[in-house]
């Protein structure tokens, strides 16, 4: 195993961990020896992405950057759901002021994660629809536990995926597969996702997923961090700059779309479905 000198960070592999920047909805553990942070989403029951969780995530990403994290693994406390995506309650009959804060924070988190200077991996240990898929695609590497699903299924709720969601998928899989996936709102099973490149590896369980995600960072043992970060920025920077230039337009377009009566009706039906499903399982 090569050891980083000078430009490279010296690494040993003693299992020494410390707590770092924990928040209400995120648990952060950093391996002192490798500098790799594991960020665990913990908003029961399904890690729905609301304003507060996204704000926590933005703060954590900022702290990791300031403290020169050598990498980050994103995972879930649940063994069934990575994250169910955007919290429907942020979009159903929304308060306009709060919605603007919510959507602006989602934009911010995406730009931070998609463009992070440190390498990132997702250990997907449960279902990852919609916003869950977006977070996973925003990472550089994805390891997914078998027998779950992943995809941008917004059209099934009568919502079109925003341009930057689409660009994240185009950066991950082929244009043809992106078009078919988005227009049909398809959710891919783990083996299907692997076949089209939506995920990079399949794991048996969360422990296996974390182990494989950690191994991803070994690829950069002999790579100068500044060269790696510059190359990533060259590949992803245009997508981020495009959103920066159009943040307000994207916000207004999204708000206008979700306020459409048919969209609100679809969200109401979906909430009723979730309520009935919960009552049946009780």
TrEMBL record:
InterPro entries linked to this entry: ClpP/crotonase-like_dom_sf (IPR029045), Enoyl-CoA_hydra/iso (IPR001753)
Annotated TM spans: none
Main location: mitochondrion
UniProt GO molecular function: delta(3)-delta(2)-enoyl-CoA isomerase activity
Highest taxon of the lineage: Eukaryota
Pathway: Lipid metabolism; fatty acid beta-oxidation
Catalytic activity, as annotated: (3Z)-decenoyl-CoA = (2E)-decenoyl-CoA; (3Z)-dodecenoyl-CoA = (2E)-dodecenoyl-CoA; (3Z)-octenoyl-CoA = (2E)-octenoyl-CoA; (2E)-tetradecenoyl-CoA = (3Z)-tetradecenoyl-CoA
Any Gene Ontology CC annotation: mitochondrial matrix
CDD domains noted in UniProt: crotonase-like
Keywords from the UniProt entry: Acetylation, Fatty acid metabolism, Isomerase, Lipid metabolism, Mitochondrion, Transit peptide
BP GO terms, sorted: fatty acid beta-oxidation
Cellular localisation: Mitochondrion matrix
Job of this protein: Key enzyme of fatty acid beta-oxidation. Able to isomerize both 3-cis (3Z) and 3-trans (3E) double bonds into the 2-trans (2E) form in a range of enoyl-CoA species, with a preference for (3Z)-enoyl-CoAs over (3E)-enoyl-CoAs. The catalytic efficiency of this enzyme is not affected by the fatty acyl chain length.
Subunit structure, as described in the record: Homotrimer.
Protein name, entry field: Enoyl-CoA delta isomerase 1, mitochondrial
């Amino acid at each position: 195993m090569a050891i980083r000198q000078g430009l490279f960070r010296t690494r040993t592999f003693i299992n020494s961990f410390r707590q770092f920047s924990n928040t209400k909805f995120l648990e952060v553990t950093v391996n002192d020896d490798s500098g790799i942070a594991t960020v665990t989403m913990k908003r029961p029951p399904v890690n729905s992405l609301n304003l507060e969780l996204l704000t926590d995530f933005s703060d954590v990403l900022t702290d990791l950057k300031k403290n020169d994290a050598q990498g980050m693994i994103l995972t879930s406390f649940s063994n069934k759901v990575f994250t169910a995506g955007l919290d429907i309650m942020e979009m159903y009959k929304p308060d306009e002021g709060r919605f603007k804060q919510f959507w602006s924070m989602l934009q911010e988190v995406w730009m931070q994660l998609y463009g992070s200077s440190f390498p990132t991996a997702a250990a997907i240990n449960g279902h990852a629809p919609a916003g869950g898929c977006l977070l996973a695609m925003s990472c550089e590497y994805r390891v997914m536990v078998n027998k779950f699903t992943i995809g941008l299924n917004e059209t099934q709720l009568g919502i079109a995926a925003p341009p930057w969601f689409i660009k994240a998928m185009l950066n991950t899989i082929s244009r043809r597969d992106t078009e078919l996936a988005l227009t049909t709102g398809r959710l891919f099973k783990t083996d299907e996702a692997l076949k089209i490149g939506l995920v990079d590896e399949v794991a048996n369980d969360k422990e296996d997923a974390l182990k494989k995600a950690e191994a991803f960072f070994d690829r950069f043992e002999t790579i100068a961090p500044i060269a790696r970060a510059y190359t990533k920025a060259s590949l992803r920077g245009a997508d981020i700059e495009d959103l920066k230039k159009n943040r307000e337009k994207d916000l207004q377009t999204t708000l206008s779309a979700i306020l459409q009566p048919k969209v609100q009706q679809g969200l109401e039906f979906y909430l009723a479905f979730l309520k009935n499903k919960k009552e049946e399982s009780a």
